[in-house]
Every structure is written in C-alpha cells, then in structure tokens.
C-alpha cells in the first residue's frame, strides 16, 4: 500500500498535482486548494491509503508540488 499525505493548509492551488493525476487530485471550487480525492482530513492534513499501483504517479506529484506539501510513502 501507499500512504499519501497532503498538508492542505499550505497548498496554494498551483494545479501541478491535478495536471499529473486528475483521478486523484482536483481543485476545490470553494477555497481554490487541491483536494486529495478519497482522503480523510484531520488537523489540516489529508491522508489516504492507496494501492501500490499509484506509487509512481504519487511520487511524481510529491516531487512536482510547488510547496512540497505532499508526502508519499510505501507502507
Ligand atoms: S501541487 Fe501541491 S501546492 Fe500545488 S495544488 Fe497540488 S498540493 Fe497544492
């Protein structure tokens, strides 16, 4: 499994994650920040356990995130 964590509070809505993986990320119409689709939000962090098949794309999102607010780990 892959754990994806987004510190959403600091997201600036740059859209890089959405362009890379629109099935997993989208921009919220209400606050302009990106949403980790399927994730659970707690204390400003959104967390999701995804399948191993999402690892490579998620790591790319981690690397391209302009503010480095995405973290991806194999678990
Ligand atoms: S790449 Fe990072 S800063 Fe940009 S929208 Fe996605 S989570 Fe937010």
Can you tag this structure with a few keywords?
75 residues, alpha+beta, 4-stranded antiparallel beta sheet, two-stranded antiparallel sheet, binds iron/sulfur cluster
Tell me about the largest β-sheet.
4 strands, antiparallel
Oligomer: single chain
The average pLDDT score comes to: 97
Q: Just name the CATH architecture.
A: 2-Layer Sandwich
Strand order, main sheet: write it out. Answer: 4-5-1-6
The CATH topology assignment is Alpha-Beta Plaits
Envelope shape: globular
Total helical elements: 2
Derived structural class: alpha+beta
| Separation, N- and C-terminal Cα atoms | 5 Å
Count of extended strands: 6
Run of helices and strands: EHEEEEHE
Short description:
With 75 residues, this protein is of the alpha+beta class. 20% of the residues lie in helices and 35% in strands. It is globular and about 30 Å long.
Describe this structure in words.
With 75 residues, the chain is an alpha+beta fold. It has one domain: Alpha-Beta Plaits (2-Layer Sandwich), CATH 3.30.70. Helix content is 20%, strand content 35%. It has helices at residues 16-20, 55-64, and strands at 2-7, 25-27, 34-36, 40-42, 45-50, 70-74. The protein has a four-stranded antiparallel sheet with strand order 4-5-1-6, covered by helices on one side. Strand 4 (40-42) and strand 5 (45-50) form a beta hairpin. It is globular and about 30 Å long. 21% of the residues are buried. The mean pLDDT is 97. Iron/sulfur cluster is lined by residues 6, 11-17, 34, 65-67, 69-70.
């Amino acid at each position: 499994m892959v754990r994806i964590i987004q510190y959403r509070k600091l997201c600036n809505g740059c859209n890089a994650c959405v362009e890379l993986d629109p099935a997993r990320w989208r921009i919220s119409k209400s606050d302009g920040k990106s949403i980790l689709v399927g994730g659970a939000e707690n204390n400003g962090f959104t967390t999701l356990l995804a399948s191993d098949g999402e690892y490579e794309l998620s790591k790319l999102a981690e690397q391209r995130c302009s503010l480095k607010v995405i973290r991806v780990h194999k678990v």
